[in-house]
Design goal:
- Helix content is 37%, strand content 20%.
- It is an alpha/beta fold and 235 residues long.
- The protein has one domain: Acetylglutamate kinase-like (Carbamate kinase, 3-Layer(aba) Sandwich).
- The strands form 2 sheets. The protein has a 9-stranded mixed beta sheet, sandwiched between helices. Strands 7-8 form a two-stranded antiparallel ribbon.
- The radius of gyration is 17 Å and the shape is globular.
- It starts with a strand and ends with a strand.
Length: 235
């Protein structure tokens, strides 16, 4: 499958690297290098990053935070991560632009589909922060929504695991990996790849999802080139 434009979803937790909290600069730079590598191939890239390395709304709710306030804090955490990635890309001389779902100039430009597409067509990496801008939605759902909006050919979900398994491979040594799987089977098996809202959004808009290990240097280019190193989720 040839890709002209992709939506890359990165987890906030992955940015911690070996730390317990926050951002591991070495890990961040490695991500930026991989992104620049594929951007230099002419690929148009939109990026959504989670905020779980800084604050997660749901876990905040369990500690007494109001859910709406907690989710808003989580949205701001994604903005911090997005600015960090933007800085790392700029240091590598890779053009990029930060968009935010909630108005907060001059931190970032207010997101719109057309401005993001214009930026990508100019060769800039579009980093889309702030989730959907609404509480009760995860960054997986934000990724699916932005992927559909920017008319991406596929969504690439970069994780610490190299694909989708029958069970959590970190907990179950007998878990086996899928090379490809349908959205319906993900739902029927109860696999926790993304939340149901994100899965449904991708299915209804025929946005294929590739789950792969982003932590191994060079894997983003490999998976873009079609190497069989992840799991394809499709209709």
């Amino acid at each position: 499958m040839q890709f002209k434009r992709i939506l890359l979803k990165l987890s906030g937790e992955s940015l911690m690297g070996g730390k317990q909290y926050g951002i591991d600069e070495t890990h961040l730079d490695a991500y930026a290098q991989q992104i620049k590598e594929v951007a230099q191939m002419g690929l148009q890239i939109g990026i959504v990053i989670g905020g779980g390395n800084i604050f997660r709304g749901l876990s905040g709710t369990s500690r007494g935070f109001d859910r709406v306030k907690g989710d808003q804090m989580g949205m701001l955490a994604t903005v911090i991560n997005s600015l960090a990635l933007s800085s790392a890309l700029t240091a590598l001389e890779q053009a990029n632009r930060v968009f935010t779902a909630i108005r907060m100039e001059p931190v970032g430009e207010l997101y719109s589909k057309w401005k993001a597409i214009e930026a990508m067509e100019r060769g800039e990496v579009a980093i889309i922060a702030g989730g959907t801008g609404n509480p009760f939605f995860t960054t997986d759902t934000a990724s699916a929504l932005r992927g559909v909006e920017i008319e991406a050919d596929a969504m690439f979900k970069g994780t610490r695991v190299d694909g989708v398994y029958t069970a959590d491979p970190e907990k179950d040594p007998t878990a086996t990996k899928f090379r490809s799987i349908s959205f319906d089977e993900v739902y029927e098996r109860g696999l926790r790849v993304m939340d149901l809202t994100a899965t449904t959004l991708c299915k209804e808009n025929n946005l294929p999802v590739v789950v792969f290990d982003m932590d191994s240097q060079g894997n983003l280019k490999k998976v873009i080139d079609g190497e069989d190193i992840g799991t394809l989720i499709h209709l």
